[in-house]
């Protein structure tokens, strides 16, 4: 019923009463604009009225003055003649309709509203937070109008707004039905919108776009990411192309951004923002996001990551292979694998790697040449075939690198057939992004770091792993002949790797270059450690001794460079550092024992011994460094105590020699003594918060297991870390001659 009609009509079958005649001084029932359009005005006496707001012309809303007075008509203060129960019923129906239109819930939800609650309280509970996004919904003007409804609004105004909403929805549904006459999805549904396949995409995108920062802030974060250390070490995105895509995105009108933008690009963009925030200091993030509290700031990067995963879902990457799926998945790797908070994040990261490899094979990137480049992909719309070809090679070889080195066993390798799969696609050219468009650009020497270095070296490293490390599965030992073959092949990889041990002053630390160089040296250490001790007494195995010691020193020197940015050191590097410390301790102990037979007592502290001890001390400095981003501080504390125990035992051994006495036992006895000393230190107090709540086993490195027997770092069989069987049965035991003891060494 229109609010312009009188309130009283006759009941029954009789004719209606005649309308009362109105004099010339009656108040206006419509604004001038509604009157000109011959439409009813939905808000009596309000300026602007709801109809003018809907038309987008609130400034044209005017009300005629009462004839003879010259004064504008104001909202009458008297209440219309209606029962209070009818008014409350209409209010409740208004809220139910608003909730259904804007939140997709059934009318039963509206029954839970309090019938006595004022409209501004009930509706405000479901309104978005006061963050002014340019991507406002088409109904935002009506939402603002409804949420601002005063408790004392006239009944005519409430009914008018209700009718306006109904007419609006009917018109939209009618237009949709005309456009898709045979599509049943255009009909109203009682399914939850987030679960209905026809509406889930829009609902998900609502959340995805809601978390996007404002344009200026987002572009600032993008700039920070491309200037930061994460992008330098883990180069996934072609910077000129991505920056152009970001510019094009914000050049669109806000209401066109969603419809004109690939959801997969939004997924990549959100991960850029997440990694930029992850790399920033928390205090700086709080300044950039003043509306977020400290707890929300700590969860912001993870929330952006979750939004990225949802955007990939909307892009339908499960059924349509896309290049941007590979880019997003590779950006998930440092976020989850390298800097994740536990095994849960690590497992999620591994699943993303598997899915990305499947997509790469679907796109034929494992058998790629220039004629097979997927130029139809949305990611390459603004690329030349040459640039697209190089980017595809980089992406594939980054995945090949991960495939060969992150799995616990060869059975998980997706690219196990190295000769026909992982190496079929040629390595990317050793060029930077800005040189890819230049056909005359000369490829840089392999020893120079470029944007393709990690992809090139990582893939070569993984290829070596597939060819040789499979013989070491489940702790199996390689023959010494195969160790030498593996050593020679690994040296060809190392010879092509740029050395990070001489950084350029003032240049950002390339954390991934350092990490991969440490990993290569750790592989040498794992190859030769079964024969390291034998090299001191047998020239045939001297190569193993020298290679183990030099590799351990390289690891320590690399990780000392990471002390400039310890928050970028992956968790598993702690195992490499400790393993290097144990090797250097073995060398130090044996050198001390050997020096007794070559020098007099005062020469025990010769420069050679002091230099060897200094490297172990450097290890202790690394573990003593405290920084808030340390994700496994318990492991760090344990490693620190172990190195302290090693140094204490070395000092006791040197003191024994200085007294002209012979230390008791062999190397195994030495490490058993270190373990016993650590257990004794634990037993000195009943405090269960001490670093060693279990007795550390120096042969198996079980100090990486907490009191619940849950690993805080990667599995000891992982290709990226840890020893298989440390010193107990391998390093100190000669398979043919029994244990190596101090008397035999001397």
TrEMBL record:
GO molecular function terms noted in the UniProt entry: DNA-binding transcription factor activity, RNA polymerase II-specific; zinc ion binding
Cellular localization per UniProt: Nucleus
Keywords: Nucleus
Cited CDD domains: fungal_TF_MHR, GAL4
Top-level taxon: Eukaryota
A GO term from the CC aspect: nucleus
Gene3D superfamilies in UniProt: Zn(2)-C6 fungal-type DNA-binding domain (4.10.240.10)
Residues of the Zn(2)-C6 fungal-type domain: 30-63
Pfam families the UniProt entry points to: Zn_clus
Bias type Basic and acidic residues, positions: 1-16
Stated name of the protein: Zn(2)-C6 fungal-type domain-containing protein
Biological source species: Athelia psychrophila
Organism ancestry: Eukaryota, Fungi, Dikarya, Basidiomycota, Agaricomycotina
